[in-house]
Amino acid sequence: MNLDKNKVVVGLSGGVDSTVAAYLLKKKGYDVIGITFKLSEEFNIYEAKKVSEKLNIPLYIKDYSEEFDLVVKSEFAREYLKGRTPNPCVTCNKYIKYDKMLKFAKSIGAYYIATGHYANIIYDKSINRYKIYKCKINLKDQSYVLYSLPQNILKHTLLPLGNFKSKKDVRDIAKLIDINISEKKESKGICFIPNNDYVSYIKNKFKGEILKGNIVDLNGNVLGKHDGIINYTIGQRKGLGDFNKRMYVIDINPDKNEVILGSDNDTFVKGLIAKEANFILSDKLKKDIKVKANISQHGFLFDCKVFNYEKEKIKVIFEKKVRSVAPGQSIVFYDDDKLIGGAVIDYIIK
Questions:
Q1: Domain 211-262 is classified in which CATH homologous superfamily?
Q2: Residue 89 catalytic?
Q3: pLDDT per residue as tens digits for the range 241-253
Q4: Alpha helix (H) ranges present in 30-144?
Protein backbone atom coordinates (compact mmCIF):
# COMPACT_ATOMS: atom_id res chain seq x y z
CA MET A 1 0.00 0.00 0.00
CA ASN A 2 1.27 3.47 -0.90
CA LEU A 3 1.33 5.72 2.16
CA ASP A 4 -0.09 9.24 1.90
CA LYS A 5 2.35 11.86 3.26
CA ASN A 6 -0.56 14.23 3.74
CA LYS A 7 -2.26 11.83 6.13
CA VAL A 8 -1.32 11.75 9.82
CA VAL A 9 -2.61 9.75 12.79
CA VAL A 10 -2.48 11.77 16.03
CA GLY A 11 -2.56 10.22 19.49
CA LEU A 12 -5.43 12.00 21.28
CA SER A 13 -5.81 11.94 25.06
CA GLY A 14 -8.17 14.90 25.31
CA GLY A 15 -5.50 16.99 27.03
CA VAL A 16 -4.01 20.32 25.99
CA ASP A 17 -0.87 19.04 24.26
CA SER A 18 -2.34 16.34 22.02
CA THR A 19 -5.29 18.61 21.17
CA VAL A 20 -3.05 21.47 20.06
CA ALA A 21 -0.83 19.05 18.12
CA ALA A 22 -3.85 17.80 16.13
CA TYR A 23 -5.16 21.35 15.64
CA LEU A 24 -1.82 22.63 14.29
CA LEU A 25 -1.46 19.73 11.85
CA LYS A 26 -4.96 20.29 10.55
CA LYS A 27 -4.22 24.01 10.11
CA LYS A 28 -1.18 23.04 8.02
CA GLY A 29 -3.45 21.09 5.68
CA TYR A 30 -2.87 17.55 6.85
CA ASP A 31 -5.65 14.98 6.74
CA VAL A 32 -5.76 14.32 10.50
CA ILE A 33 -7.11 11.13 12.06
CA GLY A 34 -7.30 10.75 15.83
CA ILE A 35 -6.51 7.60 17.74
CA THR A 36 -7.00 6.83 21.43
CA PHE A 37 -5.64 3.73 23.12
CA LYS A 38 -7.65 1.80 25.66
CA LEU A 39 -4.95 0.72 28.09
CA SER A 40 -6.90 -0.13 31.25
CA GLU A 41 -10.34 -0.86 32.64
CA GLU A 42 -10.52 2.72 33.94
CA PHE A 43 -10.22 4.02 30.38
CA ASN A 44 -12.51 6.97 29.53
CA ILE A 45 -12.92 8.18 25.94
CA TYR A 46 -15.13 11.20 26.71
CA GLU A 47 -12.38 13.85 26.53
CA ALA A 48 -10.84 12.44 23.34
CA LYS A 49 -14.28 12.23 21.69
CA LYS A 50 -15.00 15.83 22.63
CA VAL A 51 -11.74 16.98 21.05
CA SER A 52 -12.30 14.99 17.85
CA GLU A 53 -15.76 16.53 17.52
CA LYS A 54 -14.38 20.05 18.11
CA LEU A 55 -11.71 19.53 15.47
CA ASN A 56 -14.08 17.65 13.17
CA ILE A 57 -11.72 14.71 12.73
CA PRO A 58 -12.44 10.96 12.92
CA LEU A 59 -11.44 9.13 16.09
CA TYR A 60 -10.46 5.47 16.35
CA ILE A 61 -10.46 3.64 19.68
CA LYS A 62 -7.96 0.78 19.84
CA ASP A 63 -7.88 -1.67 22.73
CA TYR A 64 -4.28 -2.48 23.69
CA SER A 65 -5.02 -3.14 27.36
CA GLU A 66 -3.81 -6.75 27.19
CA GLU A 67 -0.46 -5.79 25.65
CA PHE A 68 -0.11 -2.83 28.00
CA ASP A 69 -0.70 -5.04 31.02
CA LEU A 70 1.81 -7.62 29.84
CA VAL A 71 4.57 -5.33 28.57
CA VAL A 72 4.32 -2.22 30.74
CA LYS A 73 2.34 -2.80 33.93
CA SER A 74 3.67 -6.25 34.77
CA GLU A 75 7.25 -5.24 34.00
CA PHE A 76 6.84 -2.16 36.20
CA ALA A 77 5.73 -4.23 39.18
CA ARG A 78 8.28 -7.01 38.60
CA GLU A 79 11.14 -4.53 38.45
CA TYR A 80 10.20 -3.10 41.85
CA LEU A 81 10.14 -6.64 43.24
CA LYS A 82 13.75 -6.90 42.03
CA GLY A 83 14.71 -3.74 43.90
CA ARG A 84 14.83 -1.62 40.75
CA THR A 85 13.16 1.67 39.78
CA PRO A 86 11.64 1.34 36.29
CA ASN A 87 10.43 4.05 33.92
CA PRO A 88 7.18 2.76 32.37
CA CYS A 89 6.87 5.74 29.98
CA VAL A 90 10.05 4.69 28.16
CA THR A 91 8.77 1.13 27.81
CA CYS A 92 5.32 2.29 26.69
CA ASN A 93 6.67 4.65 24.04
CA LYS A 94 8.91 1.97 22.56
CA TYR A 95 6.62 -1.05 22.59
CA ILE A 96 3.07 0.33 22.75
CA LYS A 97 2.40 3.96 21.89
CA TYR A 98 4.61 4.66 18.86
CA ASP A 99 4.90 1.10 17.59
CA LYS A 100 1.16 0.38 17.65
CA MET A 101 0.29 3.84 16.35
CA LEU A 102 2.56 3.49 13.34
CA LYS A 103 1.24 0.03 12.50
CA PHE A 104 -2.31 1.39 12.62
CA ALA A 105 -1.36 4.43 10.53
CA LYS A 106 0.13 2.23 7.82
CA SER A 107 -2.98 0.01 7.84
CA ILE A 108 -5.12 3.01 6.80
CA GLY A 109 -2.57 4.45 4.36
CA ALA A 110 -1.18 7.23 6.56
CA TYR A 111 2.53 8.01 6.32
CA TYR A 112 2.84 9.99 9.57
CA ILE A 113 2.01 9.65 13.23
CA ALA A 114 2.11 12.52 15.73
CA THR A 115 1.94 13.14 19.47
CA GLY A 116 1.98 16.10 21.85
CA HIS A 117 5.46 15.33 23.15
CA TYR A 118 7.81 18.28 23.59
CA ALA A 119 10.86 17.48 21.47
CA ASN A 120 12.04 17.84 17.87
CA ILE A 121 12.85 15.32 15.15
CA ILE A 122 15.06 16.57 12.30
CA TYR A 123 16.34 14.65 9.29
CA ASP A 124 20.08 14.91 8.55
CA LYS A 125 20.71 14.21 4.87
CA SER A 126 24.49 13.96 5.36
CA ILE A 127 24.16 10.77 7.43
CA ASN A 128 20.69 9.68 6.31
CA ARG A 129 19.46 9.57 9.92
CA TYR A 130 16.71 11.20 11.91
CA LYS A 131 17.91 13.12 14.97
CA ILE A 132 16.10 14.00 18.19
CA TYR A 133 16.59 17.43 19.76
CA LYS A 134 15.37 18.97 22.99
CA CYS A 135 12.40 21.32 22.77
CA LYS A 136 12.75 25.05 23.38
CA ILE A 137 10.81 24.89 26.69
CA ASN A 138 13.48 23.36 28.91
CA LEU A 139 11.16 22.41 31.79
CA LYS A 140 8.77 20.67 29.38
CA ASP A 141 11.37 18.77 27.36
CA GLN A 142 10.40 15.11 26.85
CA SER A 143 13.26 13.92 24.66
CA TYR A 144 14.40 11.75 27.59
CA VAL A 145 11.47 9.33 27.16
CA LEU A 146 11.93 9.14 23.37
CA TYR A 147 15.56 7.96 23.25
CA SER A 148 14.60 4.33 22.59
CA LEU A 149 12.65 5.03 19.39
CA PRO A 150 14.30 3.42 16.32
CA GLN A 151 14.91 5.14 12.99
CA ASN A 152 11.96 3.43 11.29
CA ILE A 153 9.61 5.15 13.77
CA LEU A 154 11.38 8.52 13.85
CA LYS A 155 11.09 8.65 10.06
CA HIS A 156 7.30 8.69 10.31
CA THR A 157 6.88 10.85 13.43
CA LEU A 158 5.82 14.50 13.69
CA LEU A 159 6.11 16.49 16.94
CA PRO A 160 4.26 19.80 16.38
CA LEU A 161 5.00 21.26 19.84
CA GLY A 162 8.79 21.09 19.72
CA ASN A 163 9.42 24.71 18.73
CA PHE A 164 7.12 26.47 21.20
CA LYS A 165 8.89 28.81 23.60
CA SER A 166 6.39 28.57 26.48
CA LYS A 167 3.52 26.39 27.66
CA LYS A 168 1.39 29.56 27.79
CA ASP A 169 1.70 29.82 24.00
CA VAL A 170 0.36 26.28 23.71
CA ARG A 171 -2.53 27.03 26.08
CA ASP A 172 -3.35 30.21 24.13
CA ILE A 173 -3.86 28.09 21.02
CA ALA A 174 -5.98 25.67 23.03
CA LYS A 175 -8.24 28.60 23.93
CA LEU A 176 -9.03 29.01 20.25
CA ILE A 177 -10.38 25.47 20.31
CA ASP A 178 -12.12 25.26 23.67
CA ILE A 179 -11.70 27.30 26.87
CA ASN A 180 -12.16 24.21 29.07
CA ILE A 181 -9.42 22.33 27.27
CA SER A 182 -7.00 25.23 27.65
CA GLU A 183 -7.52 25.29 31.41
CA LYS A 184 -7.21 21.55 31.87
CA LYS A 185 -4.53 20.57 34.39
CA GLU A 186 -1.53 18.58 33.24
CA SER A 187 -1.49 14.89 34.09
CA LYS A 188 1.30 13.94 36.45
CA GLY A 189 2.68 10.67 37.69
CA ILE A 190 2.19 7.25 36.14
CA CYS A 191 -1.03 6.93 34.14
CA PHE A 192 -2.05 3.52 35.53
CA ILE A 193 -1.20 4.19 39.19
CA PRO A 194 -4.12 5.76 41.13
CA ASN A 195 -2.96 8.77 43.17
CA ASN A 196 0.62 7.85 42.21
CA ASP A 197 0.56 5.22 44.99
CA TYR A 198 2.71 2.62 43.26
CA VAL A 199 3.29 0.62 46.49
CA SER A 200 -0.42 -0.14 46.92
CA TYR A 201 -0.66 -1.01 43.24
CA ILE A 202 2.17 -3.55 43.44
CA LYS A 203 0.85 -5.01 46.71
CA ASN A 204 -2.53 -5.63 45.08
CA LYS A 205 -0.91 -7.20 42.02
CA PHE A 206 1.59 -9.45 43.83
CA LYS A 207 0.16 -9.96 47.32
CA GLY A 208 2.07 -13.15 48.15
CA GLU A 209 5.45 -12.07 46.81
CA ILE A 210 6.18 -9.08 49.04
CA LEU A 211 8.15 -10.26 52.06
CA LYS A 212 9.46 -8.53 55.14
CA GLY A 213 13.21 -8.37 55.57
CA ASN A 214 16.17 -6.63 57.15
CA ILE A 215 17.47 -3.11 56.88
CA VAL A 216 21.26 -3.30 57.19
CA ASP A 217 24.33 -1.08 57.06
CA LEU A 218 27.33 -1.48 54.75
CA ASN A 219 28.86 -4.04 57.07
CA GLY A 220 25.72 -6.17 57.16
CA ASN A 221 24.69 -5.13 60.68
CA VAL A 222 20.92 -5.25 61.11
CA LEU A 223 19.46 -1.79 61.75
CA GLY A 224 15.79 -2.65 61.55
CA LYS A 225 13.05 -4.36 59.56
CA HIS A 226 11.23 -3.45 56.34
CA ASP A 227 7.80 -4.43 55.00
CA GLY A 228 9.03 -5.10 51.47
CA ILE A 229 11.79 -3.74 49.24
CA ILE A 230 9.14 -2.19 46.95
CA ASN A 231 8.86 0.60 49.54
CA TYR A 232 12.39 1.83 48.82
CA THR A 233 14.37 3.47 46.04
CA ILE A 234 18.07 4.34 45.73
CA GLY A 235 18.81 7.71 47.34
CA GLN A 236 15.71 7.68 49.54
CA ARG A 237 16.08 9.53 52.84
CA LYS A 238 12.58 9.82 54.29
CA GLY A 239 10.72 7.06 56.09
CA LEU A 240 13.79 5.07 57.11
CA GLY A 241 13.52 5.39 60.90
CA ASP A 242 15.47 7.24 63.57
CA PHE A 243 19.22 6.59 63.53
CA ASN A 244 20.40 9.80 65.23
CA LYS A 245 21.98 10.76 61.92
CA ARG A 246 20.83 11.22 58.36
CA MET A 247 20.75 7.90 56.49
CA TYR A 248 20.07 7.05 52.86
CA VAL A 249 19.15 3.97 50.83
CA ILE A 250 22.36 3.19 48.95
CA ASP A 251 21.50 -0.28 47.65
CA ILE A 252 18.76 -2.90 47.54
CA ASN A 253 19.61 -6.61 47.51
CA PRO A 254 16.61 -8.62 46.25
CA ASP A 255 18.43 -11.98 46.69
CA LYS A 256 18.81 -11.38 50.43
CA ASN A 257 15.67 -9.21 50.61
CA GLU A 258 17.75 -6.46 52.23
CA VAL A 259 17.71 -2.68 52.12
CA ILE A 260 21.20 -1.24 52.65
CA LEU A 261 21.62 2.15 54.29
CA GLY A 262 24.60 4.46 54.38
CA SER A 263 25.66 8.08 54.68
CA ASP A 264 25.24 10.82 52.11
CA ASN A 265 28.75 10.14 50.80
CA ASP A 266 27.82 6.51 50.20
CA THR A 267 25.10 7.51 47.71
CA PHE A 268 27.71 8.72 45.19
CA VAL A 269 28.98 6.37 42.46
CA LYS A 270 31.63 6.69 39.77
CA GLY A 271 29.78 4.91 37.01
CA LEU A 272 27.33 2.27 35.82
CA ILE A 273 26.67 -0.53 33.36
CA ALA A 274 23.60 -0.13 31.14
CA LYS A 275 21.71 -2.45 28.78
CA GLU A 276 19.26 -2.14 25.87
CA ALA A 277 21.21 0.78 24.45
CA ASN A 278 19.87 2.74 21.49
CA PHE A 279 21.95 5.35 19.68
CA ILE A 280 20.32 7.86 17.37
CA LEU A 281 23.25 8.66 15.06
CA SER A 282 24.30 5.06 14.43
CA ASP A 283 22.92 1.58 15.03
CA LYS A 284 25.46 1.02 17.79
CA LEU A 285 28.25 2.81 19.59
CA LYS A 286 31.19 2.82 17.18
CA LYS A 287 33.77 4.38 19.51
CA ASP A 288 34.10 5.79 23.02
CA ILE A 289 32.32 9.12 23.39
CA LYS A 290 32.35 12.00 25.83
CA VAL A 291 28.86 13.42 26.42
CA LYS A 292 26.51 14.76 29.04
CA ALA A 293 24.11 12.35 30.70
CA ASN A 294 20.78 12.56 32.45
CA ILE A 295 19.83 9.77 34.88
CA SER A 296 16.21 10.89 35.40
CA GLN A 297 13.64 12.65 33.25
CA HIS A 298 13.96 16.08 34.84
CA GLY A 299 17.36 15.70 36.47
CA PHE A 300 20.70 17.43 36.04
CA LEU A 301 23.19 16.76 33.26
CA PHE A 302 26.53 15.16 34.17
CA ASP A 303 29.74 14.92 32.14
CA CYS A 304 30.71 11.34 31.38
CA LYS A 305 32.45 8.95 29.01
CA VAL A 306 30.61 6.05 27.37
CA PHE A 307 32.30 2.79 26.33
CA ASN A 308 31.18 -0.42 24.69
CA TYR A 309 30.92 -3.27 27.19
CA GLU A 310 30.37 -7.03 27.12
CA LYS A 311 27.26 -8.58 25.59
CA GLU A 312 26.08 -5.39 23.87
CA LYS A 313 26.01 -3.41 27.08
CA ILE A 314 27.68 -0.05 27.64
CA LYS A 315 29.81 1.28 30.49
CA VAL A 316 29.47 4.87 31.71
CA ILE A 317 32.09 6.60 33.83
CA PHE A 318 31.20 9.99 35.28
CA GLU A 319 33.72 12.83 35.33
CA LYS A 320 32.70 13.48 38.93
CA LYS A 321 30.85 11.03 41.15
CA VAL A 322 27.05 11.17 40.86
CA ARG A 323 24.52 10.47 43.62
CA SER A 324 21.39 8.32 43.68
CA VAL A 325 21.83 6.33 40.46
CA ALA A 326 18.94 3.86 40.40
CA PRO A 327 19.04 0.60 38.39
CA GLY A 328 15.95 0.32 36.20
CA GLN A 329 15.92 3.99 35.30
CA SER A 330 17.24 5.17 31.94
CA ILE A 331 20.43 7.10 31.34
CA VAL A 332 20.14 9.40 28.32
CA PHE A 333 23.04 11.13 26.55
CA TYR A 334 23.18 14.62 25.04
CA ASP A 335 25.51 16.86 23.07
CA ASP A 336 24.10 20.34 23.80
CA ASP A 337 20.42 20.02 22.76
CA LYS A 338 20.99 16.97 20.55
CA LEU A 339 20.02 13.57 21.94
CA ILE A 340 22.78 11.01 21.34
CA GLY A 341 21.06 7.92 22.71
CA GLY A 342 20.32 6.11 25.94
CA ALA A 343 20.05 2.82 27.80
CA VAL A 344 18.54 1.17 30.87
CA ILE A 345 20.75 1.29 33.98
CA ASP A 346 21.58 -2.32 34.88
CA TYR A 347 23.91 -1.89 37.87
CA ILE A 348 26.17 0.73 39.38
CA ILE A 349 29.96 0.93 39.72
CA LYS A 350 31.03 2.19 43.14
A1: Adenine nucleotide alpha hydrolases-like domains (2.30.30.280)
A2: no
A3: 888 889 999 999 9
A4: 46-55, 65-68, 74-81, 88-92, 98-107
